[in-house]
């Protein structure tokens, strides 16, 4: 009895303690305190973007060092790895975004967050022009501001290769709105197929979903679509669910070219079991309203009827990036993106522009992992630069005052100058070093693949353990307790009630 009493008491204390701690952290996140105002003595640091690179930078940066201005057309951070889950309704769209102010309001010095799109950068005069491109505009909707340092983290945009019909007829999987749009379109296809009197061929067409691009985005999305079909549509559309087909089209000889052979064959066999067709060495040449035109491995051209096309065929640099590169034609010559040095300084931009993430052309893959490590690194570099600037100012002041210093105080003043010089010499910037933590992808049917830099290279496994590992890895990577709670709750909700099949 004693043992049970102690166990009961310990459990109660743990639950109460855990709830109290959870409540305390949520309230601390909800109610940020007062911040230091902008200081005219400090340099202006403009951050372009609110994605992986920019948000990681803002999290690590000591804003006491600068007057920080963040400019982004989205006033939030989007956790892209879980975007395919939003597209099939496993997650609520709002669960995977975090307003940028939830980060900046917790910083020491106030940060100005501006919802606007940068339209021009002048790397010579160090100015940036931006515009409010949202629906509602005030009297002023475009302006230009100066910067001392610019962190360029605008990411990339969808690559369509100018293939006819892609922009007009395909859905994308890059932004939050893309996932919401795809969900609406998918359910529209299903409901249209259920319309009375629909011919069999038309039902087959409407229920054929084509995913273009066998990279991680296309593979994960196909897996999620399959889960939606198996877990939910079979219950609510029993007469149609068996007719839904998913085809993944990839131009290269294999899907997931960046993963190991073992993991590729694991994915291919899982897709076979899931009845997801993979067409490799097949290139989409045109996307029509009701079909895709394919160039088959034997170079013949075929038309494949379908209800929905999701374009996940990779990314390219934004126009803003191309325009910026054109302003520095001698150094910015890489068509893949901005050329930066080992310290992430944009080449040719007088040490005042840093670039991180998908907008750069480096030896690293364009991933969230790289962008966030670069952001955190750059925050430390900017901390060092601020320290250096302060010491330089101090040195300048000491050196210019030395002639006015009284003879008896001269020795001390010279020693101080020497000490400042020594401190300055000690500040050495270390180059950026990327530490690969492995790649993880969800492939549907509660299976995930993991390419990890330990345990002899890679792990290919399915079942509950890998699935839980995938989920816990993403939960821990989410930036805030709020997002972790929202995503965790969505997963429980879907387990209990299934995904919502209503079309908004
Ligand atoms: P982004 O995160 O794209 O941020 C760019 C920011 O710039 C955005 O806030 C945007 O609004 C803003 N911006 C755009 N134009 C302007 C402008 N003119 N002025 C100012 N701001 C502007 N990577 C992984 O490592 N693991 C994964 O599991 C993974 N899953 C993914 C799943 C999907 C569906 C997608 C699409 C990508 C995934 N990625 C993943 C890749 C990862 O999302 C990118 O590599 C990462 O977002 C790059 O970070 P970034 O900061 O360079 O750009
Ligand atoms: P991607 O560039 O990796 O893959 C696009 C694929 O589309 C390529 O394999 C290409 O051959 C194919 N393709 C292009 N044009 C085509 C056409 N006309 N017809 C048929 N196929 C065509 O793009 P993705 O998957 O969006 O990934 C972008 C980046 O984000 C990558 O660096 C990736 O590693 C990262 N990412 C990582 C994830 C993870 O680790 N779980 C998940 C999603 C993205």
Going across the biggest sheet, name each strand in turn: 5-2-1-9-20
Give start-end ranges of low-pLDDT stretches: none
Helix content: 40-55%
From the spread of the alpha carbons, the general shape counts as globular
Strand residue content: 15-25%
| Mean pLDDT level | 94
Can you walk through the features of this model?
The structure is a single chain. With 504 residues, the protein is an alpha/beta fold. The chain has two domains: 32-155 and 318-387, 3-Layer(bba) Sandwich (FAD/NAD(P)-binding domain), CATH 3.50.50; 166-316 and 435-497, 3-Layer(bba) Sandwich (FAD/NAD(P)-binding domain). Helix content is 40%, strand content 20%. It is built from 14 helices and 23 strands. It has helices at residues 2-30, 52-60, 83-87, 101-104, 166-169, 176-193, 200-206, 216-236, 261-273, 319-326, 368-401, 407-426, 463-477, 481-497, and strands at 43-48, 66-72, 76-78, 97-99, 111-115, 117-122, 127-131, 142-146, 149-152, 156-158, 171-172, 208-212, 245-249, 276-279, 283-287, 291-295, 301-305, 308-311, 315-317, 353-355, 439-444, 447-451, 459-461. The strands form seven sheets. Strands 5-2-1-9-20 form a five-stranded parallel sheet, with no helix packed on it. Strands 11-18-12-13-14 form a five-stranded parallel sheet. A three-stranded antiparallel sheet has the order 6-7-8. α2 (52-60) links the parallel β1 and β2 (66-72). α11 packs antiparallel against α12. The mean pLDDT is 94. Bound molecules: flavin-adenine dinucleotide and 1,4-dihydronicotinamide adenine dinucleotide. Residues 81, 163, 212-218, 220, 249-252, 257-258, 283-284, 312-315, 365-367, 439-441 line the site of 1,4-dihydronicotinamide adenine dinucleotide. Flavin-adenine dinucleotide binds at residues 48-54, 71-74, 80-81, 83-84, 117-118, 153-155, 173-174, 217, 318, 320, 357-359, 366-369, 371.
């Amino acid at each position: 009895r004693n043992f049970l009493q102690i166990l009961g008491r310990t459990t109660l204390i743990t639950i109460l303690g855990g709830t109290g701690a959870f409540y305390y952290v949520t309230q601390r996140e909800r109610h940020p305190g007062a911040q230091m105002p902008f200081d005219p003595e400090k340099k202006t640091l403009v951050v372009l973007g609110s994605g992986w690179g920019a948000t990681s930078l803002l999290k690590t940066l000591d804003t006491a060092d600068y007057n920080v201005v963040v400019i982004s057309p989205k006033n939030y951070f989007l956790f892209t790895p879980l975007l395919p889950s939003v597209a099939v309704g496993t997650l609520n769209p709002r669960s995977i975004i975090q307003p940028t102010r939830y980060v900046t309001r917790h910083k020491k010095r106030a940060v100005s967050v501006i919802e606007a799109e940068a339209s021009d950068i002048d790397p010579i005069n160090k100015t940036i022009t931006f515009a409010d491109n949202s629906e509602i505009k005030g009297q002023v909707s475009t302006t230009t501001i100066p910067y001392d340092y610019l962190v360029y983290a605008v990411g990339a945009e969808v690559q369509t290769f100018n293939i006819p019909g892609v922009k007009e007829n395909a859905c994308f999987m890059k932004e939050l709105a893309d996932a919401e749009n795809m969900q609406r379109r998918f359910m529209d296809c299903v409901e249209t197929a259920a319309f009375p009197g629909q011919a069999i061929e038309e039902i087959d067409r409407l229920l054929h979903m084509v995913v273009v691009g066998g990279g991680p985005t296309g593979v994960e999305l196909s897996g999620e679509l399959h889960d939606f079909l198996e877990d939910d549509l079979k219950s609510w559309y029993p007469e149609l669910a068996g007719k839904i087909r998913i085809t993944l089209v990839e131009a290269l000889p294999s899907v997931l070219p960046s993963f190991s052979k073992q993991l590729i064959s694991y994915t291919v066999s899982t897709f076979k079991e899931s009845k997801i067709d993979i067409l490799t060495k097949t290139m989409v040449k045109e996307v029509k309203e009701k079909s895709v035109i394919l160039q088959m491995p034997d170079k013949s051209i075929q038309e494949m009827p379908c209800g929905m096309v999701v374009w996940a065929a990779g990314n390219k640099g934004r126009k803003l990036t191309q325009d910026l590169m054109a302003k520095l034609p001698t150094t910015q010559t890489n068509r893949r993106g901005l050329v930066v040095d080992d310290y992430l300084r944009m080449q040719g931009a007088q040490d005042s522009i840093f670039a991180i993430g998908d907008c750069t052309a480096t030896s690293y893959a364009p991933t969230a992992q790289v962008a966030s490590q670069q952001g955190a690194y750059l925050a430390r570099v900017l901390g060092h630069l601020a320290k250096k600037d302060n010491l330089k100012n101090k040195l300048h002041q000491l050196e210019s005052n030395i002639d006015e210093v009284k003879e008896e105080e001269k020795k001390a003043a010279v020693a101080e100058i020497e000490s400042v010089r020594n401190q300055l010499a000690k500040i050495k910037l270390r180059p950026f070093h990327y530490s690969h933590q492995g790649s993880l992808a969800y492939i549907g049917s509660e299976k995930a693949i993991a390419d990890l830099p330990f345990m002899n290279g890679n792990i290919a496994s399915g079942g509950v353990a890998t699935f839980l590992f995938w989920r816990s890895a993403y939960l821990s990577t989410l930036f805030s307790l709020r997002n972790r709670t929202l995503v965790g709750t969505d997963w429980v909700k879907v387990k209990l009630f299934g995904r919502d099949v209503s079309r908004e």
